[in-house]
Design goal:
Elements: E1 21-27, E2 30-39, E3 54-61, E4 63-68, E5 71-76, E6 79-84, E7 89-94, E8 99-105, H1 107-113, H2 119-127, E9 130-132, H3 135-153, H4 157-172, H5 187-202, H6 209-215, H7 220-231, H8 235-253, H9 258-264, H10 270-281, H11 285-291
Antiparallel strand pairs: 1-2, 2-8, 3-6, 3-8, 4-5, 4-7, 6-9
Length: 306
């Protein structure tokens, strides 16, 4: 899979009106989680309406065809796709009977989930983000979605958190995610998956390629060559990409100060963080935070996680 080094922006939610329904869980007027239903009459572009950083998309019927980071991927009935901010679906075509549900959540919500999934499963998921599940499993997923929709509308943040955690663990028990499937990956893909997983888990406290290379018992130069040949990206670019994704999510979805976010992401000081952020986005963190990338009205805001 080829990965784009460009980190996509998330256009304002207020610009999109094609949801059959759309629910938002907020904390202090910032969105933490969104749950949306769309159908075959509109384009299916998850990065346009899911908050950064993560999203789960479920195709319950019909099909969606598009390019995930320039690789053509079909999403058929009973498929589940795991999205991060740099998994970009473009040129999507939906069948008229298509039905899609998307659960998107931010870095802060992911932290609160405190999910523990074996590294081998996570690696597999990052390299192959589209999974096929059974009719029975999809029926269970729809029950989860129905309950989540109700709990968000009832302003039950703790219940929403526990329900999403339960859904993820339910999906992780699926045999399509079992560690044995990692045998289908090439050695290079296994290395890339391990590296991406470690970066996702540790990018806040570890910013050097050398640290990640040590964790998978490889020389930094060899790791760099594998990533370049397999994904056309450098290890440093992967680390920077993860940090920017986390930074955008925290700036857009929390009331944390820029200094607090700088500390949380492991930068030496706020100035260093600001220079890093400007280099990758063309704007400074304070301006990004003030701009309010989501544009979601603050009226009727959900209370979110305590």
């Amino acid at each position: 899979m080829q990965y784009s080094t460009q980190i996509p922006e998330v256009p304002k939610l207020a610009n999109f009106t094609f949801f059959t329904w759309h629910s938002v869980l907020r904390k202090d007027h910032y969105p933490l989680l969104t749950l949306s239903r769309i159908d075959g009459s509109i384009p299916a572009l998850p990065e346009l309406f899911a908050p950064p950083t993560y999203a789960l998309e479920f195709v319950t019927r019909g099909s969606v065809t598009g390019k995930i980071n320039d690789r053509i991927v079909p999403l058929t009935a009973n498929s589940c796709a795991f999205w991060m901010g740099d998994h970009v679906l473009r040129d999507a075509q939906t069948s008229p009977d298509c039905e899609i549900y998307v659960l998107g959540f931010t870095a802060e919500f992911a932290d609160a989930l405190n999910i523990h999934i074996p590294l081998s499963q996570f690696s597999q998921l990052l390299m192959h983000p589209v999974l096929q599940i059974t009719d029975l499993q999809m029926r269970a997923v729809l029950r989860y979605i129905e309950l989540l929709h109700m709990l968000i509308d009832e302003d039950r943040p703790t219940a929403v958190l526990n329900m999403v955690r339960s859904l993820i663990y339910y999906l992780a028990e699926d045999t399509t995610l079992a560690p044995k499937q990692s045998q289908s990956l090439t050695r290079a893909e296994q290395i890339c998956g391990q590296f991406l997983s470690l970066v996702e888990l540790h990018c806040r406290e570890q910013h050097t390629v050398e640290w990640y290379a040590r964790q998978i018992s490889l020389a930094p130069k060899y790791l760099s060559n594998v990533l370049k040949q397999t994904m056309d990206i450098s290890p440093n670019a992967c680390i920077d990409r993860a940090l920017i994704r986390q930074a955008k999510s925290l700036l857009s979805s929390t009331s944390l100060s820029v200094q607090q976010i700088s500390d949380r992401l492991g930068f030496l000081n706020q100035s260093h963080f600001g220079t890093f952020f400007r280099r990758h986005t063309g704007t400074n963190p304070s301006a990004y935070k003030t701009a309010g990338r989501y544009g979601v009205p603050t009226s009727n805001a959900r209370s979110g996680l305590s």
